[in-house]
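User: Need the bound-state model for DLL:
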Amino acid sequence: MAYYQEREERMSRDEMRALQSARLVEQVARAYQRVAPYRKKMQEKGVEPGDIRGIEDLRKLPFLTKYDLRDEYPYGYLAVPLADCVRIQSTSGTTGKRVVAFYTQADIDLWEDCCARAIVAAGGTRDDVVHVSYGYGLFTGGPGLNGGSHRLGSLTLPMSSGNTERQIQFMTDLGSTILCCTPSYAAFLAEAIHDAGLIDKIRLKAGIFGAEAWSEEMRRDIERNLRIKAYDIYGLTETSGPGVGFECEEQTGMHVCEDHFYPEIIDPDTLEVLPEGSRGELVFTSLSKQAFPLLRYRTRDVCALSSKACSCGRTLIKMAKPRGRTDDMLIIRGVNVFPSQIETVLINEGYPANYRIIVDRVNHTDTFEVEVEMTEEMFSDEVRGIEQKEKTLLAAMRAMLGIQPKITLVAPRSIARSEGKAVRVIDKRKI
Ligand code: DLL
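Assistant: Bound-state model below.
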């Protein structure tokens, strides 16, 4: 078994708690001293740095949201002189002001360490050719995995996203062994590789896919089509980027780099911290980042934590695959619907994971439509066969969601593919 930072990845729970406590005390003191909005928030809650003596006191601190960060855009939450920063990255958010995250060199180092941990956990070594097809630029995907691969000493291909033909050519010519991109782009690349008849020329053994929610069913599909093992990776710009959580070969959730990022699960309505194993909103506190420390940042991602022993030997707590975001969750006619539930049904029923959810409100009632691509096989089937498949799909959707969408079957490959994060939901309601 290989680890990138064995000491941190295999610490006893007691040692980890002691490390987290020491780092938290320091982080809170720094944030209070140097970041006016933190000081104000803590004063409003009647908490002082002296009240935080260890990780058990974290609950005393106020929460932080994306809106707080936006209100103080761009420098409000900066905790070091700007001259000490060497990089910014920014969120892929499409609405409102973007969040800008700052990094000192030490922040970049620890971020890249986390990504290197992920690559090693996916079986990566110095001998691998790491093909990075996440976007480069403000998005953290490309720079993060690129940095991790560099640190590990693997040969790094900074492909960025797009130009699928060139991606495949480099993959075959240079013998890429580990592919890093969004799961939706991995599925698209698989399709294109098969179309080009090049699957036997591909030497990939693993993929490190994240930046969006994806189901176990989609994982199985990608693994089969690309003949690889597909690993999940999680992170967000605000905490640094990818590598906050990463999967090992057990593939039963992502180990959280909790020596740097302390996770909590809360009830998003009552804000109460929930016991281990409960599903709720994930909250992170960055324990060691200097430039842009986050205290109890509400991610909006819905998942659960587990400290059950893992066969890989890592003791880092695991987070379940995020099922979606509280702000992704659609409420349609009063029913909570996650796009990932729709994806699960589609793949179970033999459809590709290319779909669009269209929600609207007509005469005060929500309309709910799912556009689904047919497979080539279905497309050439008789009308009666198609109708039968549609009925089966409707029943499966109703059973999963408790509400029935209108299904519109569309021609194979007619829904636009994404080179980055897929856009699945079109919500036309003006509420
Ligand atoms: O997506 C960072 C990243 C890049 C992660 C590459 C993994 C790989 P943002 O653009 O700030 O950062 O988006 C963060 O994406 O709050 C989740 O909602 C979602 N997300 C990220 N990874 C996963 C995952 C990057 N593995 C937001 N599963 C997060 C589900 C994910 N959702």
